[in-house]
Amino acid sequence: MFVRFVFPPPSSGVVVTAMSVVSFASMANAGLSELRGKHMEYSKFWNQKQGRNKAVVVDSRRGMIVCYTPAFLAALLASSFPLTFPHENFRFFLLTSALSIHFFKRIFEVIFVHKYSGGMALDVSILISLTYLISTATMIYAQHLSRDLPEPVMDLKYAGIALFFVGILGNFYHHYQLSKLRKEGEREYKIPKGGLFNLTLYAFSLAAGTAFYLMGRSYSTRRWYISKFENFPTHVKALIPYIF
Q1: How much is the pTM?
Q2: Region 157-186: what's the mean pLDDT?
Q3: Which of 67, 91, 151, 240 could potentially form a cystine with 128 if both were Cys, beta carbons 3.0 to 4.6 Å apart?
């Protein structure tokens, strides 16, 4: 009964299609908003003095924990599938484990790696949290619906595992590089450097909807750095080295 409640019958696969379209459209719209100068109110684009008068503000670390924790808990529950979802296959385990590792890494970085200096609008934190949670649940549900489909002719599971760890370790390395830019007690922003930051501001982003958002966010971030730092290296691009 629990499994049927969490995973309705396969005929509801239309839900996955609808949620995929909504997710892609919303992320693409968010990316366009970033390009137009209407930014999500966190990180360097949050100025408490110029922010909305009635916005509830939390410190950035707590705000980011709110962003990632619900999706992590959902993925962690699903990754215990031998107990909760005994009829799922190895691909289901791979997906839920990847999602669990991804969001665990994010929470770990928020607590132990990143250095924060500003605030975050609570409603923005909740919006991001819901987006991650819905995306995570949709991916898990889509994998559940494909459980009985035949295996593909070319099995890319292990290549996918390798690519995932290249991405997750590369992402962690660059976040660690960011954390070393500020010395103890410093609050001002620094120009990112080291690793792929010598070529681009946002690396290891592959998902289509997320890529559209980060394309806009990274373009705005590069424009912000150029406006704040006279010595910003112009050869460093927003997303694609040497091109954009």
Answers
A1: 0.74
A2: 88
A3: 67
